[in-house]
Amino acid sequence: MIIIFVPSWRATPDSAERVKVRVLSTDDANMRQFGIVRTGDQGLRIEILEGRFKGVQTDAVNHLMGRLELDKVFVPGDVAFAVVDGDGERVAKANVLDHYRLDTQLWLLLLFCGLLLLFGGWTGARALLSFFFTGLMIWKVLLPGYLSGMDPVLISLGTALALTACI
Question: Are 85 and 48 in contact (CB under 8 A)?
Fold first, then answer.
């Protein structure tokens, strides 16, 4: 359980926040469509719904790369997930990443846990504990080890050994 308190690796600057935003308007003038593929930029006017810039309206750009599995096109009224970088009291940059799905994903996770406990009983509870510990080891040990340049074979073997011993 000590692993919970290990600090997480951060890929974004301390001034950046991950927040929920609402798309107020879009500008599709710089967006080009070739068949079903879209490229270019989509200008967005967004309102930040949480965090220290809550209520602030700002402009953001949605870069389209021409890859259907990665590109997201927004329409006014969409709720999206964004990274907002602040420069003191004002928004320096906002990058809209994807449609906001965290609420739905949380409900699905809770439904999965509830059904696992309901149908699995004590075995389901042990399985949940195993899932939790495995996710924690991946998040706090394996991925930060890879990103910090540690030997991937050794860090993978050590993680697998710890998981095998605990589960």
Answer: no
